[in-house]
């Protein structure tokens, strides 16, 4: 049987004007459902931001469908091979912004944004002296993986960044700024905001951590830990030269990089937890949550067992399609 991965995940965005995001979202959702895609796509007047999963054939069809629209002809897709869907459903929603910044003086990335560095340029810049490296993600994303020397943001949402910058970096506007995020989209406005604030030398990693990992020259070098992703995988490996674990278990403190959601539905705190402590604490963040009468640990485990069976069947079906296609091609 084929050793290929029968499914793929597409990560993409584009800042471009969309006249009627509500109408576009409704039509886009219908197309995605009819063609078997799952994932989350946000649409606004300022552009599109999405992650979708599907079979190789489905994702190829999606790429062709999106890029045949002249507005998205040059969209750059970051592609991850996987064994099955990483989303349960398909959502396409109209929003005011494709990333929630709520800036007082909004930024148009097509007009104002930082200098984009290639993976090779980024690695070289990381090793320069007297630079400030900013992780443009939330604190919990930083905690399981980040570039060496990067500042840990004291934020839990993107819209908290402006205040964090003003409180912590206002005296360093003459420094060379290096910023990065998962796929590049958050840095587009973040770097523009930094320029508006008077920072003179603002640079961002083009394509984000995901593209950096896939570059055959850098291979994720100088990134420690894993990259947090907003799908059922939760995290993905980045450094193909040295895979280090930098997170620590919420309960016992040992090295760990797996996130779980607290089984108490009234808490649902996402926390780093080793497999032993997940069982011991019934996937709960505290004794109170472990003993809560609404704790879903047993119920969720049953759901997970059923989901793993679905994933097994998806993988088998997908591999059969790939093998059939290979056989037809060879014939």
From TrEMBL:
Keywords: Oxidoreductase, tRNA processing. The keyword tRNA processing applies. Its EC number is 1.14.-.-. PROSITE patterns: RHODANESE_3. Residues 127-217 form the Rhodanese domain. It comes from the Bacteria. It is an enzyme of class 1 (oxidoreductase). It catalyses: uridine(34) in tRNA + AH2 + O2 = 5-hydroxyuridine(34) in tRNA + A + H2O. InterPro entries: Rhodanese-like_dom, Rhodanese-like_dom_sf, Rhodanese_C, TrhO, TRHO_N. Belongs to the TrhO family. NCBIfam families: PRK00142.1-1, PRK00142.1-3. HAMAP family: TrhO. Catalyzes oxygen-dependent 5-hydroxyuridine (ho5U) modification at position 34 in tRNAs. This is tRNA uridine(34) hydroxylase. It comes from Tumebacillus lipolyticus. The gene is trhO.
């Amino acid at each position: 049987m084929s050793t290929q991965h029968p499914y793929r995940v597409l990560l993409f965005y584009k800042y471009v004007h969309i006249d009627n995001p509500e109408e576009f979202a409704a039509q886009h959702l219908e197309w995605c459902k009819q063609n078997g895609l799952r994932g989350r796509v946000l649409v606004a007047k300022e552009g599109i931001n999405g992650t979708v999963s599907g079979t190789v054939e489905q994702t190829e069809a999606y790429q062709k469908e999106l890029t045949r629209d002249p507005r998205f002809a040059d969209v750059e897709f970051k592609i991850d091979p996987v064994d099955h869907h990483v989303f349960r459903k398909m959502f396409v929603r109209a929003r005011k912004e494709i990333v929630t910044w709520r800036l007082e003086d909004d930024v148009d990335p097509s007009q104002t944004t930082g200098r984009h560095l290639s993976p090779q340029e980024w690695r070289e810049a990381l090793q320069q002296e007297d630079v400030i490296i900013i992780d443009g993600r939330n604190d919990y994303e930083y905690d399981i993986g980040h570039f060496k020397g990067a500042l840990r943001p004291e934020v839990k949402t993107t819209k908290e960044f402006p205040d964090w910058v003003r409180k912590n970096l206002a005296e360093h506007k003459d420094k060379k700024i290096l910023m990065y995020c998962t796929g590049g989209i958050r840095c587009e406005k973040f770097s523009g905001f930094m320029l508006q604030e008077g920072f003179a030398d603002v640079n961002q990693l083009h394509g984000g951590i995901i593209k950096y990992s896939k570059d055959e020259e850098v291979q994720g070098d100088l990134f420690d830990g894993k990259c947090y992703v907003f799908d059922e995988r939760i995290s993905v490996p980045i450094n193909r030269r040295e895979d280090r674990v930098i997170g620590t278990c919420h309960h016992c403190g040992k090295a760990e990089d797996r996130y779980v959601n607290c089984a108490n539905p009234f808490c649902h705190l996402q926390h780093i937890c080793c497999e032993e402590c997940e069982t011991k604490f019934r996937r709960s963040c505290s004794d109170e949550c472990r003993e809560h009468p609404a704790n879903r640990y047993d119920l969720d485990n049953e759901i997970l067992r059923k989901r793993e069976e679905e994933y097994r069947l998806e993988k088998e079906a997908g591999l059969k399609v790939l093998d059939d296609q290979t056989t037809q091609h060879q014939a």
